[in-house]
Write a structure and sequence with these properties.
single chain; alpha/beta; eight-stranded mixed beta sheet; three-stranded antiparallel beta sheet; 13 helices; globular
Length: 418
């Protein structure tokens, strides 16, 4: 009799490291060089963790040999508390902060501490797929609300409210957004908070990219917007500080904490069951939050991240049959494919064929729970030379897949094909 995986896993997926990724690994083992535009791993592309963080960890590594408090080191939690105080968040305490092995672990812990079987959680479409998978793992059902590409990928508030039912327990916000690069407008966030308070929904706000902002975009944290419901706000070292492998993340509880005693007990229990998060990364949190924020240099118009984002935006919109909204934050761009122009029928088919023929790895939009199968995500962490070559090859690939009737479609004055 075969040993089968749990039934809870049957409907779960994580396509960022899913079947297409496994196919890429097979090709690598056969000796092929794969251009990986599939995962936001800064260190793989020469974005190093700031020296002062590494030095502080090395100098204090012997202090990381034993277990820490299951909620985290006092100094790390205090640094997180003070960071949010600097953003205007009031009435915060050390007890409101939990440290985890990256935001990924905290997503799983925080949802498992809240959900009962059949509870519904509103998750954006498209989303970072770990949220949808974690809702399912906790026994809940993810209900996806629409983000509007025509409105810079801001959430559609009418669609969101229409999907609230008696079973709805929580609302997930991902801002800045992965995979779209959207940075939500303040009035949109305020209305989302209003809906959460109106229907007594817990807000989970994933703000891991809160410092990766372009062209004057401003990030507004949910932490200081909520009063009449509970907010669980998350951040970490992985992206802003290019320390993804350190696995250092945090969450802070704000809003109606007085009504969350039972929830905090559950969260504390789950944190205790894993004993503690890794201690050496916690040593670096105080340094990261209190020191010079080198990410600002990278997102300036002269900075490497901005230049790579600009290159992707320009090149993608110059390819007939592709279009994309300009990212305002994060490390990603989410192009749309005009499927009527090509011989392939879906984003999945596009992604597989691109890998097979050009050895370029991207992730299909349906892997981010987007309902129309006509988008894909590109990570713009590689340098401009790699991106220039990859996007040229994507354009050539699409030319080979173009239907004859679409070859001569004219350009609009802005250079985008009709």
């Amino acid at each position: 009799m075969p040993f089968k995986k749990s039934n809870r896993l049957e409907s779960l997926r994580y396509d960022i490291r899913g079947p297409v990724y496994e196919k890429a690994l097979q090709l690598q083992q056969q000796g092929f060089k794969i251009v990986g535009l599939n995962i936001g791993n800064p260190a793989a592309f020469g974005f190093d963790t700031p020296d002062e963080i590494v030095h502080d960890i090395i100098d204090n590594i012997r202090d990381a040999q034993g277990y820490a408090d299951s909620r985290g080191l006092f100094a790390a939690r205090k640094a997180v508390m003070q960071y949010y105080q600097s953003l205007g968040v009031k009435n915060t305490q050390i007890e409101d902060v939990f440290i985890g092995n990256g935001v990924s672990e905290l997503i799983v812990l925080s949802l498992n501490a809240l959900l009962n079987e059949g509870d519904e959680v509103l998750v954006p479409a498209p989303d970072y797929p770990l949220w949808t998978a974690s809702v399912g793992l906790a026994g809940g059902n993810a209900v996806h609300y629409r983000c509007d590409e025509a409105a810079d990928w801001n959430p559609d508030l009418v669609d969101l409210e229409n999907k609230i039912t008696k079973k709805t327990k929580a609302l997930v916000i991902i801002n800045p957004n992965n995979p779209t690069g959207a940075v939500y407008e303040k009035h949109i966030l305020e209305q989302m908070v209003h809906l959460a308070e109106k229907y007594r929904l817990v807000i989970f706000s994933d703000e891991i990219y809160d410092k990766i902002l372009y062209d004057g975009a401003v990030h507004y944290t949910i932490a200081n917007m909520v009063q009449d419901t509970l907010a669980v706000v998350m951040g970490g070292l992985s992206k802003n500080y290019r320390a993804a492998g350190f696995r250092g993340g945090w969450l802070i509880l704000t809003g109606a904490k007085t009504r969350a005693k039972s929830y905090v007990e559950g969260l504390t229990l789950l944190a205790s069951m894993r004993l503690c998060s890794n201690v050496f990364a916690q040593i670096g949190i105080q340094t990261a939050l209190g020191g010079y924020q080198s990410i600002h240099d990278l997102v300036l118009p002269t900075g490497r991240l901005h230049q790579q984002m600009q290159l992707c935006y320009d090149k993608i919109n110059a390819i007939q049959g592709l279009s994309c909204t300009r990212p305002k934050g994060s490390l990603y761009i989410f192009p749309k494919i005009d499927l009527q122009q090509f011989t392939f029928k879906s984003d999945n088919e596009f992604v597989y064929d691109l890998l097979e023929e050009e050895r370029i790895l991207v992730v299909a939009g349906n892997g981010f729970n987007y309902p129309t199968k006509d988008h894909f995500r590109i990570v713009f962490l590689p340098n401009t030379q790699i991106l220039e070559d990859a996007l040229t090859r994507i354009g050539n690939f699409l030319d080979r897949k173009r239907k004859v009737s679409a070859i001569t479609r004219p350009l609009q004055p802005n250079g985008v094909h009709k």
